[in-house]
Specification:
This protein is of the alpha/beta class and about 290 residues long. It is about 25% helix and about 35% strand. The protein starts with a strand and ends in a 20-residue tail after the last strand.
Length: about 290
C-alpha cells in the first residue's frame, strides 16, 4: 500500500498516514504540492492520498477541499492528528538571537499570538513544516528557526527550543484519506461527505436544509465555496451524520438530486477519533538537542 502526502518526511501528514495504515504494511511518498498529490492518485501512482481539510484553530483548509469538487474519488477514512508545534533551531540559542522563522502558512497562523511576542523575528512562509526544519538544518545561518512538530526535530537531529507554542493548546487537524472512486460498500459507516451546487436563487440554501430536516438527518458541517466558473455563486460542502446505508439519508439525497445542478458524493466512512486533551501544556520551554 502506497500513500501519498504533501511535504517531506516528518510532516504531520506522515503521522496521519501511520495511523491510517494501522497494522498494515505501507510506504509513503511525499509530493511538492497538493495538486501534484491529487494528480498522482488520479494517475494510479499511489493507492491513497492524505489531505488535511480542517484545523480546529484556523478553520477549513480550502486549497485542499476545493481540489475535490469535481473529481471521481472516494473518502475512505477520517483521521485526527493533535498538532504540537515547536520552535526548532539548529543549535541551542537564545530567543533574542533568532532573526527569522519559517513554516507552513497554516502553522504560522496557528502560532500568531506566540510569534507576536517577538517582533524582532521575521516570519516567513515555507511549503511544509518538516521541510522548513530540513531547510534550517542545511542553512549556514544559525539564527534562523522553523516551526514544526517535535518529532520533525528528532528526525532531522535539530534542537527543540520551545514546545507547545500553538495559540490553542487543543490544536488539531482533521485529515481525509482518498482513493480513486469505486462502488461504496456500507459497512458500519456513520458519516458522509458531499459537495453540491444549486441555482443561485432566493431560498435555495433553505430548500437544501429543509430536505435534511424533513428526513430527520443531522448535518455536522456546512461550508460554502465559490464556483470558479460562476463569479459570486457558491457550492456547498456538507458532512452528514449518517452513512449511505441509512434509509433516511438515502431518501434525502434522492430528493436533493431533484434541486441540485451538481452533486458529488465524496464518500461514506467511519468517524475519526478526536484526540484526548488531558494534560495539555502551552508554551513550555524545554531545551534539548
Amino acid at each position: 500500500m502506497l500513500i501519498g502526502y504533501q511535504g517531506v518526511e516528518g510532516s504531520y501528514s506522515t503521522i496521519a498516514c501511520q495511523r491510517f495504515s494501522g497494522e498494515n504494511n505501507y510506504q509513503t511518498k511525499g509530493f511538492l504540492t497538493f495538486r501534484s498529490l491529487v494528480d498522482a492518485l488520479l494517475h494510479d501512482e499511489v493507492d491513497y492520498i492524505a489531505l488535511p481539510v480542517e484545523n480546529s484553530t484556523s478553520g477549513p483548509i480550502t486549497r485542499t477541499i476545493d481540489l475535490m469538487k469535481y473529481l471521481d474519488v472516494t473518502v475512505t477514512d477520517e483521521i485526527y492528528v493533535k498538532i504540537d508545534h515547536a520552535l526548532i533551531t539548529k543549535h541551542l540559542i537564545e530567543l533574542s538571537e533568532i532573526t527569522k522563522v519559517y513554516s507552513h502558512p497554516e502553522a504560522l497562523e496557528q502560532c500568531y499570538t506566540y510569534l507576536s511576542q517577538y517582533p524582532h523575528i521575521e516570519v516567513l512562509e515555507h511549503m511544509d513544516t518538516a521541510g522548513a526544519v530540513e531547510m534550517v538544518k542545511h542553512a549556514e545561518d544559525d539564527t534562523i528557526a522553523a516551526i514544526a512538530g517535535s518529532h520533525a526535530a528528532e528526525l532531522y537531529g535539530m534542537t527543540v527550543l520551545q514546545e507547545n507554542i500553538s495559540d490553542n493548546p487543543f490544536n488539531t487537524t482533521r485529515f481525509l484519506f482518498f482513493k480513486k472512486k469505486k462502488p461504496i460498500v456500507n459497512r458500519g459507516h456513520d458519516k458522509t461527505s458531499i459537495y453540491i451546487e444549486v441555482n443561485h436563487s432566493t431560498g435555495s440554501l433553505s430548500d437544501i436544509l429543509n430536505i435534511f430536516k424533513k428526513h430527520d438527518t443531522n448535518l455536522l458541517y456546512l461550508m460554502s465555496r465559490p464556483i470558479q466558473t460562476k463569479p459570486f455563486e457558491y457550492g456547498f460542502f456538507i458532512d452528514i451524520d449518517n452513512g449511505l446505508g441509512n434509509e433516511a439519508l438515502h431518501m434525502a439525497l434522492k430528493e436533493l438530486k431533484g434541486i441540485c445542478t451538481y452533486i458529488n458524493i465524496l464518500g461514506s466512512y467511519r468517524k475519526g477519533k478526536i484526540p484526548a486533551y488531558k494534560g495539555v501544556l502551552q508554551n513550555e520551554t524545554t531545551f534539548n538537542s
